[in-house]
Amino acid sequence: MANKNGFTLIEMLLVLSIVSILSLLSVTWSLSAISKQEREQFINTLENDTLYIQQVTSIKGSVEQRPYITFKEDFYTIYFTKRRKPIIRNYPPGVRIDTRKHQYLKFEQNGNIRQPRSMDLFMGDERYKIIFPFGKGRFYLEKE
Predict the structure, then answer these.
(1) 98 backbone dihedrals φ, ψ, rounded to 5°
(2) Phi and psi of 131, rounded to 5°?
(3) Is 139 exposed, middle or buried (0-12, 13-18, 19+ CB in 10 A)?
(4) How far is C-alpha 42 from the chain's CA centre?
(5) How far apart are CA 84 and CA 78, in angstroms?
(6) Residue 41 CB neighbours (<10 A)
(7) Which CATH architecture has domain 10-143?
(8) Phi/psi zone of residue 56: left (φ > 0), alpha (ψ -120 to 50 degrees), beta?
(9) In what order do the strands lie in the sheet with 117-123?
(10) Rounded to whole angstroms, what are the CA distances from 74 to 60, 94, 95, 101?
(11) DSSP sequence for 84-99
(12) How many Å apart are CA 78 and CA 52, to the nearest integer?
């Protein structure tokens, strides 16, 4: 009489393949969630930096002391006075801003943006417009 207490090779391979497929799917889902969170964090940081520059500009008196932001294809830089080191913020992987039209973001002392504009923001396969409207309002995103 044969002992039937164990599993056959086919049963073991079936269970191992199911476990490996499920673990692969969970890793893929978590990586996409991390990427999405990085992109949302980037938008929040850009919004906060823009509001900060707007507030500091309304406080500073002379044009030389007013901070501004320059946009490059894979990072943006916040410039303050010559005595203070600029802040460089890199874009997350897969994020790019088209800066062919406008590279600078400056505000007037009353808090209005100097040149209202829009910029193209690419996040992976998705395309957005960052719109900086005239006035003291925040920028907003528009999906294209």
Answers:
(1) -80, 115
(2) -110, 120
(3) buried
(4) 3
(5) 10
(6) 11
(7) 3-Layer(bab) Sandwich (3.55)
(8) alpha
(9) 95-98, 117-123, 126-132, 140-143
(10) 29, 9, 7, 15
(11) SPPEEEEPPTTEEEE-
(12) 10
pLDDT tens, 19-59?
A: 999 888 887 778 788 888 999 999 999 999 998 888 888 88
Residue 106 contacts residue 78 (beta carbons within 8 Å): no
* 46, 39 contact by CB (below 8 A): no
Coarse DSSP helix, strand, coil percentages of the chain, rounded to the nearest 5 percent: 40, 25, 35
Q: Where are the domains of the chain?
A: 10-143
Residues contacting 138, CB < 8 A, separation 6+: 47, 50, 51
Q: Could you tell me which of 133, 137, 123 has the C-alpha nearest to residue 43? A: 123
Per-residue model confidence as pLDDT tens digits over 77-103: 999 877 789 999 999 998 999 878 778
Measured CA to CA, the distance from residue 20 to residue 30 in angstroms comes to 15
Query: 54: exposed, middle or buried (C-beta count within 10 Å: 0-12, 13-18, 19+)?
Result: buried
Global pTM reads 0.76
